[in-house]
Structures are given as C-alpha cells and as structure tokens.
Design a protein that fits this description.
Serralysin-like_metalloprot_C, 23 strands, mainly beta, single chain, 29% strand, twelve-stranded mixed beta sheet, seven-stranded parallel beta sheet
Length: 302
C-alpha cells in the first residue's frame, strides 16, 4: 500500500474511514477516488496536475495523459488528454468529445447520443451509428452520420436516416435502408438498387467506391420494398443517362428483372430511358430533323 504523508500544515483530520482536508491539497502523482465524492469550486485545479483522476460514481471522468490504454475494448469510461466525455460508459481519445450513453470517439472526433462510434475526424449524432470504425490508419475520414443505425466507411461522406450503409468516398445517403458504394454519388428514398465498378485485382483503391466510372451510379431514387427486392424509380448514370422506371409496369413485363436499364458502354449516347407507359400532355418537338423514330411492341427490347 502506498504511504500517505500529511504535514503539519495540511490541516487534515482522520476520523474512522473519513479523511477531511481543511486546507489546500495538492496531488502530483496518480489519484483514484472511489465512492460518491464530489469535486467542487476550484478544487479541480489541483487535480489537473496529476496524471489520472477517476471518479467512478460521478460520471467516470478521466483527465491527464494516460496513453497506456488505447483500444476502445480496453479503455471504456476513459478520457485522454485534451478530450472530454460526459455520460455513462463513454470513451474519448485524442482531441475528441463524447456525450450520452456508451459512445466512442477517436482521433479528433465527436459522438453524441446512444451507442455511437466515430473515428478519424468524423462525427455522429443519434443512436447506434458507426463512422469509420473499420478504417485502417488515418483514412478514410471527415464523415458525418445522423439518425439511427447508419454505417459509413468512407471519406467526406454523409448519411442520415435509418439503417443506411455507405461505403464510398464523397458520397451521401438520405432515407432508410439505402446502400451506396459509388464515388461522388447520392442515394435517396428506401431500398435502392446500388451498383458500382469492382476491379478484380489486389488493389482496392481502383474500385468504383473511390474512382469515377461512367457506368456507375450518380443518383438513385430507391422505391424498393425489401432487401431482396431493391428497385429504383430514378437511376442516373455518370455518363448522363437517366432511366425512369415504373416498377409495376416492369414487374408485369418481366417479374425477374427489376434492374434498371443500363448503358452498354461509355460511348452509348442515350440520354433518357423510360421503363413504363408515357403520357405527354403537350407537344413533342424535334429541334433538328435527324435520327429515327421507331414504333414497336410496348415492352422491353428482346
């Protein structure tokens, strides 16, 4: 047991299990306070000079430069230097801030709410959101999630809503149960059909989640009904083609094919594809007499 030294000028009184200090108290080493003790007035000033202060029954506050425990699995309820945690079972490391219940913020990040995780200069607000927990090293980073149960693995990306999954850089999702793996793209609605280029090599930095490919999705409006039936009302490709789909019409034509019509190659000049009946309540004008107008069966091309 470590020794306790009280000098004549300390003004300390020991009575049974109680220690009363009636004058200034300076802590220059490690100090652990157990029970329901409360730090009041300016007494915290002397505590800041110590390496570690823990008040288990008073919000689990940690102050100082205790860098010996870094993984979240081993460092719950702690706060590292220049960081702050408010609430229960929360952890903040390296210039981070957490507030609420069971939140984790690492490497200059912010987490507020319940059960959130934020890493690499990112932020989360809400319940059970996860931003860049699986990042290896300092990238990806700079992302934001709000709402419930959203997952992001990407840089400069944004997710809001419920149960969305975003695994792309400079991308966004707004809605529920959406997926987005396409670089610099946006998905809205619910249960969208998502697609992006995957290069079959050992370099995952070549894939469509970090690079621009003309046949990848730029904008999707999801109107699916389940994770096994994902459909889009609007699909815009990065080459400019937009496909408008009425899923009732397409199901009636081919129940097994709800995938939006895609351009065949980057040289495809099609700008608009309409998968469904079209009602035009005005005139149709061809600016120049060029190209062909074909009439045929009302249905997808064979």
């Amino acid at each position: 047991m470590a020794s306790l030294f009280l000098g004549a000028s300390t003004g300390a009184v020991i009575s049974q299990d109680k220690l009363t200090v009636e004058s200034d108290l300076e802590v220059t080493g490690k100090a652990t306070v157990q029970g329901s003790e409360v730090v009041t007035e300016d007494s915290a000033t002397s505590l800041l000079s110590s390496q570690f202060v823990a008040i288990p029954d008073s919000g689990r506050v940690r102050v100082g430069t205790a860098f010996e425990v870094r993984p979240a699995s081993q460092a719950a309820n702690n706060v590292y230097a220049t960081s702050m945690a408010v609430g229960y079972n929360s952890h903040a490391s390296y210039n981070s801030f957490v507030q609420g219940f069971s939140n984790y913020a690492h490497d200059s990040s912010l987490a507020s709410g319940v059960g959130n995780f934020s890493k690499n200069i990112s932020a989360v607000f809400g319940w059970n959101n996860n931003v860049n927990e699986e990042a290896e090293g300092q990238y990806p980073r700079h992302s934001l999630a709000s709402g419930h149960n959203n997952y992001i693995l990407g840089s400069s990306s944004f997710a809001t809503g419920t149960s969305n999954t975003l695994q792309a850089y400079n991308a966004s999702v707004l809605g529920s149960l959406l997926m987005n793996t396409s670089y610099s793209s946006t998905a809205v609605g619910q249960y969208n059909y998502d697609f992006s280029t995957v290069i079959e090599d050992e370099d995952d930095t070549n894939d469509g989640n970090r690079n621009w490919y003309d046949l990848d999705a730029l904008f999707t409006v999801g109107n699916g009904s389940s994770s096994s039936t994902r459909t889009n009302a609007v699909t815009t490709y990065k080459n400019g083609q937009t496909t408008l789909t009425n899923k009732a019409w397409k199901t009636d034509i081919d129940a097994a094919d709800l995938v939006p019509a895609a351009p065949t190659d980057v040289a495809d000049t099609t700008a608009l594809v309409v998968e469904g009946d079209t009602l035009l309540r005005g005139g149709v004008r061809l600016e120049k007499a060029q190209g062909d107008i074909s009439m045929g069966a009302f249905g997808p091309a064979e």
